[in-house]
Design brief:
Blueprint (H helix, E strand, L loop, with lengths): L17 E9 L2 E10 L2 E6 L10 E3 L4 E4 L1 E6 L12 H10 L2 E6 L11 H11 L6 E4 L1 E2 L11 H6 L5 E4 L13 H14 L2 E5 L3 H6 L8 H7 L2 H18 L2 E4 L8 H9 L4 E5 L1 H5 L21 H12 L5 E2 L31 H11 L4 H16 L15 E11 L18 E11 L2 E3 L15
Parallel strand pairs: 1-4, 1-5, 6-7, 7-8, 9-10, 10-11, 11-12, 12-13, 13-14
Antiparallel strand pairs: 1-2, 2-3, 5-15, 15-16, 16-17
Helix pairs in contact: 7-8, 11-12
Length: about 450
C-alpha cells in the first residue's frame, strides 16, 4: 500500500530519525506532525514541515502513527511450560500486533515468580530472545507456600507489583489466597507502595455453582456466574478502604461489578480495574459448542454485558484494555474433545488485542485518541512506565504505523505465538499494523531481538 505523498508501507526504514504523518496520535489529540527521534527517545514533535534539510524522513501520509501498546497482562509461561508459550514467540507476536511492552504474569511458569530466585530464573530465560520490552509481576500465594515474607525483596528486585488469586489458579504451584491472607499481604504492599493485582472471583460462589462438563459453552458460563466477580470486587473495595493498599481488579468480565468500582472511585479508594479485548468482542450467545479456544476465566458473557463494558470504558472506569494472553497447546485446550470442563481456560490474543479493540471502538464512534489511551497510555501509567505508551517528548520512541481504515481477516497462519489457536480465527478485524518501532528501530521476525528487561523504577 502507498499513501498519497507518503512512503510505501513495505519500504519503511529500519531506523527512524523523523516520522511525519497527517495523523500522529498524541496525549493531546490527533495532529499533523513530525516526530523526531534520537538515542531511542522522542526529542521533539514539530509541525510537519519543521524538518532540517539533512534529516532522513519517513513520510506516512495518511497512515496513522500510534504509540506502541503496553500489554500489562501476558502469560509467557517460560521456563517450565515453554511448550505452551515462550518469550521468543510471545514477543514476536506482540510486535506484530503493535505491542512494544509486555508485563509477564508470575504463573504459569515453573517456578512461578514468587521469590527473587524465581524472578532471576525468568529473567535469564528471557534474556537475548525478546523482540519487545518485558517487565515482570511478582506473585502472592497462600496456604503452606505463603510468601508474604518475600514481598519486600521482590519489590526491591524490580517487579511491577504482585498478583494474587482469590479462586484456584489452575496450577498447583500457584495456590490461591484467602481474603485473610490477602489482607495480611495487602498491609505489606501498602507499606511498600506496591500495586496488588487480583484475579477477583469468589471461591464460595464458584463452589456453589454447577461444575462445567461437556461441549456446551453454557455449561462453562453457568459454572462461573457474575456473582462470583461482583462479590469479590465488593470485598476488594472494602479491603482497599481498610488498608489503603493499591488494589487492581484483573480482567473484569461481569459489568455489574462496575457499580462497586464507581462507588470506590467516588470515595477516593485506591481500587482500579481493567478488561480484555475478548470481553469487548465476543458474546456467549455466539460461542459454538466445543469451541474451547473461547474458554477463559471469568467467561465471556452475554451481549448486554458486553455493551455495558463498552459504556464503562467510555466513562473512564477502566485503566486500560489488556490481553490476558494465556495460550496453551491444543491437547491442554482439549481441542480433540471440545470439553469445556477439561480445557485450559485462556485466550491467545497478544498479537490481536489493539486491532480487536479498534474494531469495536470504531463501530461505536470512538477514535484513535481513545484507542491509544486504552491500550497504551492507560496501562503504561498504571504500571508506572512513564516513558512508555505515549508519543511525547522524552518518551521512548515506541511507534506503530497503523492503517485504521483497512481491515483483514485473521488467518491463524500469520499468528506468531507458539500455537495458532485463537477465537479470533476467521474474524474480520479493523486496522492493519504496517510497522512497529521499538526505541526507533523497526521490529519484525527477520531482525535480531532488541527488547530490554524492565524493572520498576524507584
Amino acid at each position: 500500500m502507498t499513501t498519497e505523498q507518503g512512503t510505501p508501507a513495505s519500504t519503511l526504514p529500519e531506523r527512524v530519525e523523523v516520522v511525519r504523518s497527517r495523523r500522529v496520535v498524541t496525549p493531546d489529540g490527533v495532529i499533523a506532525a513530525a516526530v523526531h527521534v534520537a538515542g531511542g527517545r522522542i526529542t521533539a514533535i514539530t509541525g510537519p514541515d519543521e524538518i532540517g534539510p539533512d534529516a532522513a524522513v519517513a513520510d506516512l501520509g495518511d497512515l496513522a502513527l500510534l504509540p506502541g501498546a503496553v500489554d500489562a497482562h501476558v502469560h509467557v509461561n517460560e521456563p517450565g511450560r515453554t511448550h505452551w508459550e515462550g518469550f521468543a514467540t510471545a514477543t514476536r507476536a506482540a510486535a506484530a500486533g503493535g505491542v512494544t511492552t509486555i508485563i509477564d504474569m508470575p504463573l504459569n511458569s515453573i517456578p512461578p515468580t514468587t521469590s527473587v530466585a524465581a524472578l532471576e530464573a525468568k529473567r535469564a530465560a528471557a534474556a537475548g530472545q525478546i523482540s519487545v520490552d518485558v517487565g515482570f509481576w511478582g506473585g502472592i500465594i497462600g496456604g503452606d507456600a505463603n510468601n508474604v515474607r518475600d514481598l519486600a525483596e521482590l519489590h526491591d528486585a524490580g517487579v511491577f507489583g504482585f498478583k494474587a488469586f482469590l479462586a484456584p489458579s489452575g496450577v498447583e504451584e500457584f495456590p490461591h489466597v484467602s481474603m485473610a491472607e490477602l489482607a495480611a499481604a495487602a498491609k505489606h504492599t501498602a507499606r511498600l507502595g506496591a500495586l496488588t493485582v487480583v484475579h477477583a472471583e469468589s471461591p464460595s460462589v464458584l463452589d456453589s455453582a454447577p461444575p462445567a462438563a461437556g461441549r456446551a459453552f453454557e455449561s462453562w458460563l453457568r459454572s462461573r456466574p457474575p456473582a462470583a466477580e461482583t462479590e469479590a470486587v465488593a470485598a476488594l473495595a472494602a479491603l482497599a478502604a481498610g488498608t489503603g493498599a493499591r488494589l487492581h481488579v484483573l480482567h473484569l468480565a461481569a459489568a455489574g461489578a462496575l457499580d462497586d468500582v464507581l462507588a470506590a472511585r467516588t470515595e477516593g479508594l485506591p481500587l482500579t480495574v481493567e478488561t480484555c479485548p475478548h470481553y469487548l468482542s465476543f458474546v456467549a450467545e455466539e460461542v459454538p459448542d466445543g469451541a474451547t479456544e473461547f474458554k477463559c476465566a471469568p467467561p465471556i458473557r452475554e451481549r448486554p454485558n458486553l455493551e455495558r463494558l463498552w459504556d464503562g470504558l467510555a466513562e473512564g472506569l477502566f485503566v486500560g484494555v489488556v490481553s490476558d494472553h494465556s495460550p496453551a497447546s491444543p491437547d491442554v485446550k482439549s481441542v480433540d474433545t471440545g470439553d469445556f470442563g477439561t480445557a485450559w481456560g485462556g485466550i491467545a490474543s497478544v498479537q490481536l488485542g489493539p486491532r480487536a479493540v479498534w474494531t469495536g471502538a470504531r463501530r461505536r464512534g470512538h477514535g484513535l485518541a481513545e484507542l491509544a489511551r486504552w491500550v497504551a497510555t492507560g496501562p503504561a501509567d498504571h504500571a508506572g512506565l512513564v516513558h512508555k505508551g505515549r508519543i511525547a517528548v522524552g518518551a521512548d520512541a515506541d511507534l506503530v504505523v497503523f492503517d485504521p481504515e483497512s481491515s483483514a481477516v485473521v488467518d491463524v497462519a500469520t499468528l506468531a505465538h507458539r500455537h495458532p489457536l485463537s477465537p479470533y480465527a476467521g474474524r474480520t478485524l479493523d486496522g492493519v499494523v504496517h510497522a512497529t518501532y521499538l526505541r526507533g528501530q523497526r521490529v519484525d521476525g527477520g531482525r535480531p531481538p532488541r527488547g530490554l528487561l524492565l524493572a520498576r523504577a524507584g
